[in-house]
TrEMBL record:
Pfam families named among the record's database cross-references: MmgE_PrpD_C
UniProt domain MmgE/PrpD C-terminal: residue ranges: 6-174
Name listed for the protein in its UniProt record: MmgE/PrpD C-terminal domain-containing protein
SUPFAM superfamilies named in the record: 2-methylcitrate dehydratase PrpD
Amino acid sequence: MTVKNHGCCGHIFPALDGLKALQASAPITAESIESIHIEGYGATYSMCNRPSPSSAQEARFSIQYCIAAYLVLGKVRLQAFEPPVLEDARIRALMPKVSVAERADIAARYPRQRMANIRVTTTDGNTYQHLQKTRKGDPEDPMTDTELLEKYQELASGSLSPSALQSLREVVMSSNELPGSVVLLGLLNSVKSDRQ
């Protein structure tokens, strides 16, 4: 089972994960970008080559927007698609520097593997390249508990009080029972009884 690590189209995930891998080993910042070229499978190009998205929905399917937003924000989750962020001048300035193409050997492995090759050229003339062979959150590269809890915190904090957030976290992480499971089991048993 895949757990979505990013709040955008899954065909963009390998490029985002590849950029993160490059940033871990090279001095790549939003300010240092000369160009970024991404090579992926067919859907990476056909569905996600949207250089000028005009809505949050379009931005979720724009590799140009998502890569630029990642460089500026450090992640692509809910915040990346809020109205003020969609118009962020730093993100918009980076978008034209991002290009995407289909690469035959990567396309041949899809859908068994969802990969991307990312090449970043910085303003000092250096070029960095990384072939991302997995998507973070897929079974072959699962999210860690720390990463899952960070995502939970981000998504649930707007809906739950701090105490409810902590309580639910403790139940899910350290209990064999899920909240509401007794109620759910009771409902299932009553449905079975009604059918007999």
